[in-house]
Amino acid sequence: MAHKKLNLPSKTCPVCDRPFMWRKKWQRDWEHVKYCSERCKREAKRNIGV
């Protein structure tokens, strides 16, 4: 039985300004997740050093 992905929490990535949805791998750390991907995370760190 397939489940529907309704009412999942979402956030907006500060780097790319795109919304991203909750993922099971972020289950424990959802309140600490800031970026939608590793690429955005690396880009944010790169821009801080400039």
Automatic annotation (TrEMBL):
**InterPro entries, alphabetically?**
UCP037205 (IPR017136), Znf_NHR/GATA (IPR013088)
Q: Output the Pfam families linked to this UniProt entry.
A: DUF2256 (PF10013)
What is the name of this protein? Answer: DUF2256 domain-containing protein
